Structure formats: C-alpha cells, structure tokens
C-alpha cells in the first residue's frame, strides 16, 4: 500500500491508495449534506414565501400563502355556530396535528433521530462549528478533555491552527444573528423585517428581540450546542424516547466478532461523532444518536486504508442494523447477550 505524505499549503495529506475509491458511506454523507443544505434554505425562505409562519400582526397561521385559522374569533363574534366552530377546531387543528405527530413518531420509532441528523438546521450549525473548533483547538467542544487526532480517517493530516479562533467566534455570532432574523420573520411580515434591517430602521421591539436572541444563541452555539441537542431540544428528546421503545429500530451496530480489528484504530468513530458519543457502545448509551453516519464513514475509511489491509476494502465493523440484528445493540445490557442472526454484518 502506497503511503506518501504531501504538503499542500499549510495542510498535509497522508495519501493512501486504498482510499482513492469512494466508500458507501461517503456517498451517504454527500446525500445527507444535500438534504441539510436544502432544508436549511427552506428554513430561511419558508416565511419569505409564506410557506409557513405565525403572523402576530394578523393573529393566525399562514400556510402555503393561505390564512389558516380555527375560526374562534368568528365564533365569538357570532358569525359561526358552535357546530361550525367545533368542526373547524377538529378539521383545521386536531387532525393536522395528529397527522404530523403520527408521521413523525413512526419515523422516529423506526429510524431514531433521523430528522436531527439529516434535516435539522440547528444540527447543521452544530456540525459546522464543530469542524471549525476542531481546526482551531483540536477539540469538537471546549468541554472535551482531550484533543482529537490530527490524522483523519480519510488519510488527511490537518494540524491545529489557533489563528482560526476568530473564525469560530465569527461563525457562532453570524449564525446566531441569522437565526434571530429568521425567527423574527416567522412572527412578523418578512418584508417588514428585512426592509427595517436594510434601512437600519428597526423598531424598539425588533431591536430588543434581535439583540437578545443573538446573544443567547451565540452563547449556545459556542458553549452548549451539544448539550442543547442532547437534553434541551424537545423535538430531539421526543425522537429518542420513541426510538428507545423499539428494540428493532435502525441503530449503529458493532461487529463484536471482529473487535480485535479495532486495535490499530485511534477510535476514529468516536472522534467523528458530532454528538460526542461512543458508537461501539450499547444503544442505551447512544440515546442521542442522530443517525448521521459519520462514525460509519470513519470506520469504513479506516478499514479500507488501515495498516496491513493491502488496499482491500473490508466490511466495516460499524454498520446500520435493524430488525432482529438490532437486538445485539438494544438488548445487550446488564449481562444479557441476545441471540441474533449470524449474517447481520455482511454486506
């Protein structure tokens, strides 16, 4: 296997011939990034095009350009009968809400925090700041006790550069301000918000909201973004609880029969996880896994380019598993060793 070290600017690359071929999970990552970018753009533009927003000036929801009301104001003024108001409440309120919760709950029950890892705009920010902070300090978070390895699973050697810290702060504050503006457009007419912003004619309430939201979000993005995702996000915690109830749900599984193959690895899967989890652990300890597949990609790259592999791409030790195979991770706890099919880790 050819292992050459090359300099390109301030970045060194350790080139493994075995890594010249794209692995399966590299394609998954590209697809995931496209989903994330698309949803982030939708998050920003949804209120602009009246796809979805709650207009406080009108006092009701706007959905796909249409006023979405429950008709309670008309009922109070006597324009609607009690029967009509009840029907509006059921048809326009309870049924859509129940449908959304059902679809979301089923997806979570089957796949876990799929929304978090593949769509959530907050998680996109988490990953972006993670990468910048890792470049600046060698850590994903200021709370990490040890630095991550500068040699990445794909063979790149990227040294720590402390002069990138200003970029970390700029990204956190920039994303915080962007989010504050977008949140405000969900509550007030977007044309009003953006025109006031461009002309520096923000109202007192708009200024207070943007200032407070930017400060709070900047602190969260810099110091507590992982903690928020893991413990404070109601959407994320809901997905985790539903997912934990299904022992056959899709989960990251570890091929224990080949555990010895990990001896030459620098815990690349743990260093790749943006939620700071240990992917080889049992499901209970991966409660907040976002199914982002970054640990799977890292494992696949290490298996492909690790010492002694002679360029042969081996079956990764970490894979997505489900159904009966998932019990190896979900039920293995407190001395329990479930019987699972023997071909769970064959591709």
UniProtKB/TrEMBL annotation:
GO cellular component, one term: plasma membrane
Molecular-function annotations in GO: 4 iron, 4 sulfur cluster binding; metal ion binding
Pfam families hit by this protein: Fer4_5
Keywords recorded for this protein, A-Z: 4Fe-4S, Electron transport, Iron, Iron-sulfur, Membrane, Metal-binding, Transmembrane, Transmembrane helix, Transport
Organism superkingdom: Bacteria
Transmembrane segment boundaries: 34-54, 89-109, 164-188, 208-228
Record-annotated 4Fe-4S ferredoxin-type domain positions: 98-138, 210-243
Name listed for the protein in its UniProt record: 4Fe-4S binding protein
Organism: Thiohalophilus thiocyanatoxydans
